[in-house]
Amino acid sequence: MPSASTSDNIVVRILKSIFFKNATSKAGRYARNTSSLLQLLKDTLAKSNSLKGAGYDALREKIVLLTRLLKAYVSGNYRTIPWKTLTRIIAVLLYFLSPIDLIPDLLPVVGLTDDIALIVWLFNAISDDLESFRQWESQQNTVSIDGEMG
């Protein structure tokens, strides 16, 4: 795993890259188009599930949380997510799916370094919004189990 300063350097390079700027420019369109967003989620889960090895478990967990949040947004059940957070998530997922980015995914092992660094950055950048979603999700689970607020 890269050191914190190496990861920070990678993230700065990603955020300034044409690849991430391209993903960011598409994010708003995806956020407004339910079918495109659902396809993005499907493709993201498929790619994350194809990553083999225990080292990818934490990455898959993060991606699953992001897809649950976006599914709740698409369904209209969870709309308290700030637009900036929503478009950041979508941009990161678009970047994650792109085989051509700062470090091409076609390179074994090393190719996902930039994707992992970017997802870790995202989780740090939107930690408060993710915590709000987790609390909301926990309340929804309580409602569906108990039939009323618990």
How far the N terminus sits from the C terminus, by CA atoms, comes to 41 Å
Q: Work out the count of structural domains.
A: 1
Q: What portion of residues belong to β-strands?
A: under 5%
Q: How much is the average pLDDT?
A: 87
Instruction: Please give the radius of gyration in angstroms.
Output: 16 Å
Going by helix content, strand content and strand pairing, the class is: mainly alpha
The 3D shape can be described as globular
Number of helices: 7
**Count of beta strands:** 0
- Uncertain residue ranges: none
SSE succession: HHHHHHH
Structural notes for this entry:
- Helix content is 74%, strand content 0%.
- The protein contains 7 helices and no strands.
- By secondary structure, it is mainly α.
- It has one domain.
- Helix 1 crosses helix 6, helix 3 runs antiparallel to helix 4 and helix 5 runs antiparallel to helix 6.
Summarize the structure.
With 150 residues, the chain is an all-alpha fold.
What structural keywords apply?
150 residues; mainly alpha; 74% helix; 0% strand; globular
Compile the SSE list and pairings.
Layout: H1 4-16, H2 18-32, H3 34-50, H4 57-74, H5 83-97, H6 113-125, H7 127-146
Helix pairs in contact: 1-6, 2-5, 3-4, 3-5, 5-6
